[in-house]
Amino acid sequence: MAIDWFPLWLSLRVAALSTAVALLLGLWLAWLLARRPFRGRDVVSAAVTLPLVLPPTVLGYYLLVLLGRNSPLGEFYEWVFGQPLVFTWQAAVVAALLHSAPLLIQSARAALETVDASFERAARTLGASEWKVFWRVSLPLAWKPVLAATALAFARSLGDFGITIMVAGNIPGRTQTLSVAIYDAVEAGDGALARTLVLVISAIALAILWFANRLARTTFTFTSGQAQR
Amino acid sequence: MIDARIRKRFPASKDSTAFELDIHLKASSPVTVLFGPSGSGKTLTLDAIAGFITPDEGRITVGDALLFDVAARVSLTPQDRRCGYVFQNYALFPHMTLKENLAFAADRLPRAERRGRIAGMLDQFHLGEVSGRKPHELSGGQKQRASIARALLGNPRILLLDEPARGLDPALRAELYVVLNQVLETFKVPVLLVTHDLEECFELGDQMVVVDNGRIVQAGQPAEILDAPANPAVARLLDRHNLIAAEIAALDPARQLSRLVCLPGSGESFEILGPYLPGHLLGARVTFAIRTDRLLASPASQASDGAVPLQLAQVSLRPQTARLLFANGLMAEMPLRAYESHRHNKNWTVRFPPEAIRLMKP
Question: Which residue of A has its CA nearest to B102?
């Protein structure tokens, strides 16, 4: 029996790309949420968490409205890249991003909050810009839990089904990711294929969780006495 | 040099009651010590000067630099304030070597000066040999010197130290004082230091500012403050005075004396000679403070005129003195040697030198 591994490779590629984008956009936001009190922080924090609780179909609907061929963003994308975004594997990246970024931001925020604030304060009194504080002090001191958060986000973006099927569809060989392929296989009564893919994805997820837990456990945090008045 | 008017309200929260910091700190001496109990607002004052917290009202200047002014809408970032801050835990970056810690601070210097300045600092603070070590490989004294060196490297306008001697053993403490004195001589940077240790005020402070419950309650030279606390609250904070309520029984302007009937916390009242109290009426109630080491205690067998007989309740021995707690709550401190020869004596007398009595403002 020949198994089509395309869905697995597509899922891994989509997850890697979306995790990279989530890191790029999310890490800085996580640090702002963890460390820089600003007006409306609670609102931003709630908005960032929202995709974790909304049904995937709702998120998919939003994305269709936002990125569809008739939307300004969709038209802009088509103008730049010469093809529509929806129902391509790139749309699956956006779907996975929406699925995993909230987890990444919230757990990276928790990771960055473990860094003793006095290190960042000290860096500021020494004239370091916020950018330098983040890259030279906060992130190096929290890299293990941040990496663990990244691994979790990667695992989560492997698993999206609902958003992906709404914005990327189910085009075998083009946009069919692993979770969609499993659904397809079950629908088609191909029990062997479904079983294989289920086992593979479970093993990958288990390995990632093991790795993330190990990182989180060996994390050493640098703490000091409580701040005094 | 420092002129800081700071007002900030902290609303009550889950783990603290409401607190208001309302302080006008003026300091022009090389070292100013903020003294007060924990939770009094000392560290918050440092934090406001360094720019970690933003006051609701006020104005902060250091030297001729304006750091903060609500009215003028000026609030420099911590980066631009150039305040050297030495944290209680030193806050040396644990993932960098000592030298990298200094280099981090040197980034604000002109490129050509950096290497020389870092080498100079390592040399000055005797850290050259350990410059390649990470903070956790340094001794307590080395960490302390490193954090001071790092804070000084960027040529700060002022050096802020948050309880630098907290938790240090006596040898390290002594070393800290030597280093700080060296800093003052070489770097000519004013120092503002927070402590809750009176001895540290004497060791370091030209000027001492007593902070209690978010407010400055007295400022002056440490010896002056210890000699004449401004009010009962200060006397209680210093923890080296007896506070005694008394009634004026007689006033004698000719001999510049008064007679006071003292009403101690417990036990019988007793009468002593006090200084003349101008502006007070016979029968008025007053409170006075007298330092525990100015009370003259001697065994009852050697009693002299005007001495008050007292029962000893408890003794605590210190390296050089013995602190005698009497049954009526009075405390006297005497040289250990003088006490040792009367170790088992329970009946004592105490004399109150009139010139040591300090009338408290109500």
Answer: A126
Pairwise CB contact (< 8 Å): A125 & B50: yes
Query: What span, in angstroms and rounded, lies between the C-alpha atoms of B109 and A192?
Result: 68
Shortest distance between the Cα of B200 and any Cα of chain A, in A, equals: 18
B79 to chain A: closest CA residue: A127
Distance, in angstroms, between A135 CA and closest chain B CA?
Answer: 12
What is the pTM (predicted TM-score) of this model? 0.84
With CA atoms as reference, the chain A residue closest to B149 would be A126
A218 pLDDT band, cuts 50/70/90, is low
Among A36, A38, A124, A126, most B C-beta atoms within 10 A, so best to mutate, is A126
Query: Structural domain tally of chain A?
Result: 1
Cα–Cα distances (Å) from B114 to B104, B107, B121, B182, in that order, read 10, 7, 11, 22
CATH, residue A118 = 1.10.3720.10
Give CA–CA dist B273/B354, Å, rounded. 6
Contact B104 A225 (CB under 8 A): no
Substitution target from B80, B104, B143 for chain A, most A beta carbons within 10 A: B104
Range of the structural domain that residue A122 is part of: 6-218
For residue A48, being part of any structural domain is answered with yes
| In the predicted structure, residue A219 carries a pLDDT above the cut 60 | no
- DSSP letter for each residue of B149-174: HHHHHT--SEEEEESTTTT--HHHHH
Per-residue pLDDT tens for B79-111?
999 999 999 999 999 999 999 999 999 998 999
Q: Is residue A61 part of a domain?
A: yes
Q: Which amino acid is at A67?
A: L
Nearest CA-CA distance, residue B360 and chain A, Å: 28
State how far residue A118 is from chain B, nearest Cα, in angstroms.
6
Q: From chain B, pick out residues whose CB is under 8 angstroms from the CB of A124.
A: 51, 77-79
Q: List where CATH 2.40.50.100 sits in chain B.
A: 240-359
Q: What is the tens place of the pLDDT at every residue in B174-219?
A: 989 999 998 888 998 999 999 988 988 998 878 999 999 999 999 9
CATH topology of domain B240-359: OB fold (Dihydrolipoamide Acetyltransferase, E2P) (2.40.50)
Residue A196 lies in a domain: yes
Class of domain B2-235: alpha beta
Nearest-angstrom CA–CA distance, B222 and B33: 9
- What's the complex ipTM? 0.85
Nearest residue in chain B measured CA to CA from A121: B52
**Cβ of B9 under 8 Å from any chain A Cβ?**
no
Q: Please indicate, yes or no, if residue A63 is contained in any of the structural domains.
A: yes
Angle at the Cα of B121 from the Cα atoms of B120 and B123, rounded to 5 degrees? 65
SS3 for A132-178, per residue? Answer: HHHHHHHHHHCHHHHHHHHHHHHHHHHCCCHHHHHHCCCCCCCCCCH
Of A136, A224, A227, the CB nearest to B104: A136
